[in-house]
Amino acid sequence: MSAKLTLDGREVLFEEGETIYEIARRSKKDVPTLCYDDRLDPLGACRLCVVELEGARNPVASCTTMATDGMVVRTSTEAIEKHRKTLTELVVSENPRGVEIDPLRGMASQELALLAVRYEADGSRFEGATSGRSRKDDPNPMILRDYDQCISCYRCVRVCAEQEGDYAISVENRGFQTRITTEFAGFLEDSACTFCGQCVQTCPTGALGDLRALQNADVPGEIEKTRSICPYCGVGCSVDILSKDDKLVGVQPAMDGPANEGALCVKGQFAWEWVQHDDRLKTPLVRKDGELVPASWDEAFERAAEGFRGVEAKHGRHAIYAVASGRAPHESAYSVQKFVRAGFGTNYIDNCSRA
């Protein structure tokens, strides 16, 4: 059932169950937040999304306040912007000086860095004690744990629990002693972590980073994003490929991907370096005198055809069996089964994705 409220002087329709933040964002209002992620239940911890609500004594967190019919809301007033600036300065003071925009660390939006620029917050106003201790001793080769940059938004903890169901990381202590940790404060590889990378993608500060991508931070050129499909299995997860010129420098899950909605497995997230590995074949190889030597595609196809014909002639058609790769597109899988069923008249065909 539709209702309406007044948002910055304009009447806006909404559906029951929507929050003020959802309505404001749909109405193209620039309401900042650091603890909000579409995939997670609203928490209202950072308070940056506060708005003025007529009749309310204090500003309210728009992400946790349900809209009701007849509300009058103001998203950007002088008092609200001053409030957000102070909150941003407080948050930035938790970090070392110099919050920088780096699209290879965490989400490409780099929420905290952009807010620090927007509100000219360098942390000096509230400089003092800080929380978070980095785990640079963690030997895992995939996820950077730079907790000096942590602002205790708990998005990483919540996405691990709410989206993955792993509960591999949690929060210990309170105040300036707050830490993001694993059980018994151990390494990620000794925890329930599946290295899906969702904690990296939700982190707004760069406290968690993709180590594989960070290794390419110094590669010259501007980062370009290209939408593609992960090649590792038949699910069809959407990914955004990060590249500089002709070099692949990272992979991020597509937040609007219909099959994955911002999720990837460890292979899809981190195992992409094979694309440009020095050992990757660039031309077909055939065996001659016991050695593999480069060949043309025509020669390679002819040698393969001879092999199939030879097996069929010697052992019969049921001696030929095919397994299609889960990393191949649907067209290739179709071609493989057609090759076996039409070419040899059997159903001896399977696909590794089935398991």
List the helices and strands and how they pair.
Blueprint: E1 2-7, E2 10-15, H1 20-26, E3 50-53, E4 60-61, E5 72-74, H2 78-92, H3 111-118, E6 143-145, H4 155-164, E7 170-172, E8 179-181, H5 198-202, E9 208-210, H6 211-214, E10 223-229, E11 238-244, E12 247-253, H7 266-270, E13 285-288, E14 291-294, H8 297-315, E15 322-324, H9 330-344, E16 349-351
Parallel strand pairs: 1-5, 15-16
Antiparallel strand pairs: 1-2, 3-4, 3-5, 6-9, 7-8, 10-11, 11-12, 13-14
List keywords for this structure.
five-stranded mixed sheet; 9 helices; 4 domains; single chain; 355 residues; N-terminal domain of TfIIb; Ubiquitin-like (UB roll); Alpha-Beta Plaits; alpha+beta; three-stranded antiparallel sheet
* Major sheet description: 5 strands, mixed
Count of strand segments:
16
Name the helicity range.
10-25%
SSE topology string: EEHEEEHHEHEEHEHEEEHEEHEHE
| Amino- and carboxy-terminal Cα gap | 45 Å
Strand order of the largest sheet: 2-1-5-3-4
Total domains, how many? 4
Instruction: State the CATH class of the largest domain.
Output: Alpha Beta
What's the architecture of the largest domain, going by CATH? 2-Layer Sandwich
Instruction: Please tell me how large the radius of gyration is.
Output: 27 Å
Characterize the quaternary organization of these chains.
Answer: single chain
What is the CATH T-level topology of the largest domain? Answer: Alpha-Beta Plaits
Strand residues, percent = 15-25%
Helix tally equals: 9
**Low-pLDDT sequence parts:** none
* Shape annotation: elongated
